[in-house]
Write a structure and sequence with these properties.
180 residues, alpha+beta, two-stranded antiparallel sheet, 64% helix, 14% strand
């Protein structure tokens, strides 16, 4: 009963954390999730190091079996923390289903976030996106992809340069994205 109750409390805490994260800007969610994952992983990493240390010194097969089970549980806990951190940034997998959106609706928030985070650098970002450019994507995840891609171009650019983001389709209707 106490294990079930503890799991339910953790589930409620996770849901309330997720709701709080949804109210943050994407960059802030990423930073907060990194901090959460780092702080949450620390005890399990210590446990894993201790288990590995004891495993290397013990010769008792029953003790080794118990330690290997504990190690497996600690690894699963770490994987769960990584999954929770990812979900805090991007939402639950059930909620991140691809849907059809205009490319402009993805690029605009990405550019706004980049310009906000690179205020000290005078780089202009221009876009060439066809009017009918529809994408079937998870918008939040795709915004993150474009933030990373365009940020790299901005960081590699000299002062007063222009970064061009161009969308086009090839002969078989694949979307081509060029950042220069």
């Amino acid at each position: 009963l106490s294990v079930a109750l503890s799991m339910r409390i953790n589930e409620i805490k996770s849901r309330s954390i997720e709701n709080e994260f949804r109210n943050l800007r994407l960059a802030d969610r990423v930073e907060a999730a990194r901090w959460f994952a780092h702080e949450s992983r620390r005890p399990y990493q210590g446990i894993l190091l201790g288990i590995e240390n004891i495993l290397s010194k013990t010769t008792d097969s029953d003790a080794k079996l118990s330690l290997m089970t504990l190690r497996s549980q600690a690894r699963r806990a770490l994987a769960g923390i990584n999954t929770l951190a990812h979900n805090l940034v991007f939402g639950n997998a059930e909620m991140t289903r691809p849907r059809e959106v205009q490319a402009r609706d993805i690029i605009r928030p990405a550019i706004d976030e980049i310009l906000d985070s690179h205020r000290g650098k005078s780089v202009e970002i221009e876009t060439e996106i066809p009017e009918d450019c529809l994408l079937k994507v998870d918008p939040e995840q795709m915004i993150r992809v474009f933030v990373n891609l365009i940020s790299n171009a901005v960081e590699a650019s000299a002062e007063n340069e222009t970064v061009l983001v161009r969308f086009s389709k090839d002969q078989v209707s694949r979307l081509l994205v060029c950042v220069s």
